[in-house]
Amino acid sequence: MKLTGRVIKGAGLGIKTANLKVNGSFVLKSGVYSAKVFFQNKEYKALAIMGVRKDIEVYLLDFSGNLYNQILEVEIIKKIRNLIKFDKMENLLIQIKKDIEKAREYFINTDNPRITH
Fold first, then answer.
1. CA-to-CA distance for 43 and 55, rounded, in angstroms?
2. Which terminal CB of the chain, N or C, has fewer other CB atoms within 10 Å?
3. Is the Cβ–Cβ distance between 52 and 83 less than 8 Å?
């Protein structure tokens, strides 16, 4: 599934995610996904979080810069986990960091498939 949207201002939790206002309607269950983001003719490996309010946040794994007000195309690849409600913000941030590592592992394993005999 591919989605296109403009990066809008988010809550600012301390992890640089791009909050997208998606163009058009789409159906994607809430959860955390490995994804690819296409921006300025480049492809970035990413983590995508689909919220219960139908908002999408993406974290580009190897990107530094300002994406505010830019148009991104996001390709959802594989679900990592379902959403969990956290009672403390620090626990949410810890889980997001774990999710980022799971996304990195996913791309390492799919970019360099192991040969077995």
1. 22
2. C
3. yes
DSSP alpha helices (H): ranges in the chain? Answer: 89-111
pLDDT in tens, 32-54: 999 999 999 999 999 999 876 66
Using DSSP, how many helices (H) and how many strands (E) does the chain show?
A: 1, 6
How many C-beta atoms surround the C-beta of residue 31 within 10 A? 17
For residues 72 and 35, is the Cβ–Cβ distance under 8 A? no
- Does the pTM surpass 0.85? The reply is no
Collapsed DSSP state (helix, strand, coil) of residue 7:
strand
Half-sphere exposure of 8 (CA within 13 A, CB side): 11
Go through the domains of the chain in sequence order and give each one's CATH number.
Answer: 2-111 (2.40.30.30)
Residue 105: half-sphere exposure toward Cβ, Cα within 13 Å: 7
